[in-house]
Design a protein that fits this description.
There is one protein chain. With 566 residues, the chain is α+β, with helices and mostly antiparallel strands. The chain contains 13 helices and 25 strands. Helix content is 33%, strand content 21%. It has an 8-stranded antiparallel sheet, with no helix packed on it. Helix 3 packs parallel to helix 5 and helix 8 runs antiparallel to helix 9.
Length: 566
């Protein structure tokens, strides 16, 4: 489900010049989502959506917030809009399982087809929606009708008694982050000191773990934003200054983590998981838009959630570093995956990113089995909005879960070398498995030769070299590259247009002509390898021998990962 955004006309929004830029951007989101909600016809069920119960809650929240704000000029009837929002909120709330002692008591269904009131409860919606309901009720219940106020208070009571959050912290993932926030929120609402103490201990343990080991869910979207929303919700509702300070420390950490891999709305580098609205293009960018504001609000938003309502300001040094990419930076971070069934600590993972003002490159040195096999190992990223369609370029060998047209789900058969603006990748595909690899390239200008692609997207030239011939197919949002005959490899180097011009490559044909003469040397025999000299003269080599691990070298010396830090 995607949200079409109508641009806010200044005359339609009361912009107080004393408002913070964050609040102005949040107001833009509120206005646009509310406008969409008001104009969208209701289904026979009295809801807008049957795909995900939470979408009804989010849309109705925005419509209600806009309707009860007297300072906001609206292009529709305020009273009617409030009534519509209340009707959807009430219908959504009443879908909760309110029968104590039954399975998933206090929960909501997720998918609602064909008849919402007959849909079975699901464990997921209450995790984030329960805490957001508590926040929304506190902020807006004075504007509720009597019936809606009773329904909210009753539902919140069922949520508390369900105890869905009474679980230990084991994997340090997004589910437990939401449980931890809920412990604090509902412990406070119902004067449950034991629950509050559990929530505080869970918060402290989670913060200590991620500080010492990194986030096991590195670049996990959309779930990273559930971390942010859950703890922001708890922080806004918290009155105990000690707990509020620890929540602030957690949020500072989360935004610092986000800032490390930020480029104008893009989340660069590796991702442990990703849904189609964030692969191959960064699409879930509302929280970035509010926090950083250095790109335009896209015309379509795949997830609204509560970005327009909840907010925590990131530390100034985090924002400044993320917003200023005039000097290229290398990000070298460690993280450790949690495997509850394995008592031994997992090996550390090494995540690399090279970020400039025009593009970024990077990924994870190690391949890891992730939930639903959704790891995105490496990619080049462009800023949001500089190129129509996908803003990423990457290659992979399809693995379990792959479907044509959905460029996710990579196999284990890939080794990598990262060095600034260049990525080398080898694909040791075993005999008997499909011998094709798939590539994603942004739309733009491209010149194709037998075993290379040269393109311009945004303010960047790309040189893409393949060990075999390939075919191109234009997808709706990206250019798909398919090469058969693996084992083999791919080399990609990015060059800013302005830098290319300084080197005498004034246009794409000139760049392609120059880079054609720099093609890498591939060996696809028993010792799979590739050698490449970058435009700046750095000599790179990646080798994978029979029975041996990958060897990545720079200038003849093995690349060290000893300078990576948590």
């Amino acid at each position: 489900m995607k949200l079409k955004i109508w641009r806010v006309k200044p005359a339609m929004v009361d912009v107080n010049h004393t408002q913070s830029p964050y609040k102005i951007r949040q107001d833009e989101i509120i206005y646009n989502v509310a406008l969409e909600a008001e104009s969208r016809p209701l289904l026979e069920s009295g809801l807008w959506f049957h795909d995900d119960v939470r979408n009804n809650f989010y849309y109705a929240s925005y419509l209600f917030a806009a309707a009860v704000d007297p300072s906001r000029e609206l292009p529709y009837d305020r009273v009617a809009a409030k009534q519509k929002a209340e009707a959807v909120l009430l219908e959504t709330v009443l879908l909760q399982n309110r029968q104590p002692g039954t399975a998933l008591y206090g929960h909501w269904p997720l998918g609602l087809n064909p008849v919402p009131r007959e849909a079975s409860p699901h464990e997921l919606p209450v995790e984030i929606m329960g805490s957001l309901m508590a926040w929304f009720c506190k902020h807006y219940s004075s504007e509720f009708s009597a019936g809606l106020r009773i329904a909210f208070h009753t539902a919140i009571g069922h949520i508390y008694r369900s105890g869905f959050y009474r679980k230990p912290v084991v994997t340090f993932g997004h589910h437990e982050a939401k449980y931890t926030a809920a412990k604090l929120i509902f412990g406070k609402l119902f004067d449950d000191e034991e629950l509050r103490e559990d929530g505080l201990l869970s918060l402290q343990n989670t913060l200590a773990y991620v500080r010492g080991n990194g986030m096991p869910e590195y670049g996990s979207l959309p779930w990273f934003w559930h971390w942010v929303q859950a703890f922001t919700c708890a922080w806004e509702l918290e009155e105990d200054l000690k707990i509020k300070d620890i929540l602030a420390e957690m949020l500072d950490y989360l935004w610092k983590e986000r800032g490390h891999f930020y480029l104008q709305g893009a989340w660069v580098g590796a991702h442990s998981r990703g849904w189609p609205h964030d692969v191959p293009a960064d699409g879930n960018v509302l929280h970035d838009y509010v926090q950083f504001g250095d790109f335009k609000l896209p015309a379509e938003m795949p997830r609204t959630e509560y970005a327009g309502l909840l907010f925590y300001e990131a530390p100034e040094q985090v924002r400044s570093a993320a917003l200023d990419r005039s000097v290229p930076v290398e990000v070298k971070k460690l993280t450790r995956k949690v495997v509850p069934s394995d008592p031994d600590p997992q090996p550390l993972l090494h995540s690399y990113a090279y970020i400039t003002e025009d593009y970024a490159a990077g990924g994870m040195w190690e391949r890891v089995e992730e939930f639903d096999n959704e790891q995105l190992r490496w990619a080049f990223s462009l800023p949001i909005g500089v190129q129509e369609g996908s803003n990423r370029l990457y290659f992979f060998h399809p693995g379990q879960g792959y479907r044509e047209g959905d460029p996710r789900h990579q196999s284990p058969h890939m080794e990598v070398l990262f060095h600034k603006s260049t990525v080398l990748s080898l694909y040791p595909v075993p005999e008997g498995e499909k011998d094709s690899i798939v590539g994603v390239s942004p739309k733009g200008e491209w010149i194709k030769s037998q075993q290379a692609l040269f393109g311009k997207a945004g303010k960047v030239y790309f040189a893409v070299y393949l060990s075999q011939r390939f075919e191109l197919k234009e997808r709706q949002d990206y250019l798909e590259v398919t090469a058969t005959g693996m084992p083999g490899g791919v080399v990609v180097e990015a060059v800013p247009v302005k830098e290319a011009a300084e080197l005498g490559f004034g246009d794409l044909p000139a760049f392609a002509a120059a880079m054609t003469n720099k093609a890498p040397e591939f060996s696809t025999g028993d010792d799979l390898s590739v050698q490449y000299q970058t435009l700046s003269g750095d000599q790179l080599q990646l080798t994978l021998g029979v029975g041996a691990g990958p060897q990545a070298s720079l200038g003849g010396s093995r690349i060290s990962l000893e300078d990576y830090v948590v």
